[in-house]
Automatic annotation (TrEMBL):
Residues 6-133 form the Creatinase N-terminal domain. Gene3D superfamilies: Creatinase/methionine aminopeptidase superfamily, Creatinase/prolidase N-terminal domain. Residues 142-344 form the Peptidase M24 domain. Pfam families: Creatinase_N, Peptidase_M24. InterPro entries: Creatin/AminoP/Spt16_N (IPR029149), Creatinase/aminopeptidase-like (IPR036005), Creatinase_N (IPR000587), Pept_M24 (IPR000994), Peptidase_M24B (IPR050659). This is Xaa-Pro dipeptidase. PANTHER family: AMINOPEPTIDASE (PTHR46112), AMINOPEPTIDASE YPDF (PTHR46112:SF3).
């Protein structure tokens, strides 16, 4: 069913952008607005939104809808010209300034541009993306629950890793089983479990490595709970920690805490990135912090919107994004510490409560 509050927020942003019609093709964005998820693969799937109050869903009749979506549907078959139907609808509805989202394929967009040569087209993904970026109360509650499960799962991981008996790859199914025991349906992304030098690769693929004394252990994990994602990272040390590892860990933690402390409505996300990056650079490891500080999250683990040095986004109450500085020393080890944070009226609230102080496991 159409979520009228979310739709109204999209229309308000359309008006600000001087767009009279918006063509949404991202299945996750359509799900966000209709509470109906469909992956059409190569077939046309478009939600047309208008500032005049006329909205339409264009849908292949191969797909089944078992309830009223609260929006008129134009059905078509594989044998019909779906793009021609969309173009005719837009002409009749007086479309002049049309926004399209980043997911619209060129094979759809170019014929529409030809058919509607008197209209202007612009990529306007931010119209929906920025609405999705500011969570409503229902979304916040679900993401808090997903993060609570993730906190519990991190405790389970620390305890299980302390035994030293499991490879990185063997930890993955154990984590998934724990998530499901707590009511989550799946991983929100493939977890990254990096032992020792494997942790120096921010996107390491879990392998058959086993723990050795002195290894750092990066655990980057998240679960999917009722359609919403969690994500967090902690770094542990197995049996012992060197002076260098301790220094780097405390440097990353200092950057992470400083970034969180600076978040409040009205602050540029680029400035938040700079705060963390400057601390790590001043500590001697700027080149080893080789990724953005954070990303937005919601129905997808990585949603539109970044916390980086070029981000144009200004923090708003209700936004949820990650804060995850890291240092990666090739051939040695890596450290990353990540929380999800909710922007509040006067600051931010971390959604994760699992401890962040340096922890050595395996000596219990």
């Amino acid at each position: 069913m159409v979520n009228q509050n979310r739709l109204a927020r999209v229309i308000k942003r359309m008006e600000t952008k001087h767009i009279d019609h918006m063509l949404v093709t991202d299945p996750t964005s359509i799900d966000y607005l209709l509470d109906y998820l469909n992956y059409p693969h190569e077939r046309t799937y478009v939600m047309a939104i208008s500032t005049n109050g006329h909205h339409q869903l264009f849908f292949n009749n191969l797909f089944f809808v078992d309830h009223d979506l609260g929006i008129p549907i134009t059905w078509f078959s594989d044998a019909q010209d779906s793009l021609g139907m969309i173009a005719e609808y837009l002409k009749k509805d007086g479309a002049k300034a049309i926004g399209v989202d980043k997911n619209m394929e060129a094979r759809w967009l170019l014929p529409l541009m030809d058919a509607l040569s008197d209209a202007s087209f612009t990529v306007a993904s931010e119209v929906v993306d920025l609405v999705r970026g500011v969570k409503d109360e229902e979304e916040i509650a679900l993401m808090k629950k997903a993060s609570k499960i993730n906190d519990e799962a991190m405790g389970y991981m620390a305890k299980t890793l302390a035994s030293g008996q499991y490879t990185e790859a063997e930890m993955d199914p154990l984590l998934l089983a724990f998530y499901k025991s707590k009511g989550a349906s799946d991983h929100s992304f493939e977890p990254i479990i990096g032992y020792g030098e494997n942790g120096a690769n921010p996107h390491h693929m879990n392998d058959d490595s086993k723990l050795k004394p002195g290894d750092s252990i990066i655990v980057d994990q998240g679960c999917l709970y009722q359609g919403y994602c969690s994500d967090m990272t902690r770094t542990f040390f197995y049996k012992e920690v060197s002076d260098k590892q301790e220094y780097v860990y405390n440097l990353v933690l200092k950057a992470q805490l400083a970034a969180e402390a600076a978040i409040k409505p009205g602050v540029a996300l680029a400035d938040i990135d700079k705060i963390a990056r400057d601390i790590i650079t001043q500590g001697g490891y700027g080149k080893e912090f080789n990724h953005r500080l954070g990303h937005f999250i919601g129905r997808l683990c990585h949603e539109a919107g970044e916390v980086n040095t070029t981000s144009p986004i200004i923090a708003e109450e209700g936004m949820i994004f990650s804060i995850e500085p890291g240092v990666y020393i090739e051939g040695e080890f890596g450290v990353r510490i990540e929380d999800l944070v909710l922007v509040t009226h006067d600051g931010c609230q971390p959604l994760n409560s699992y401890p962040k102080e340096l922890t050595v496991i395996g000596n219990e």
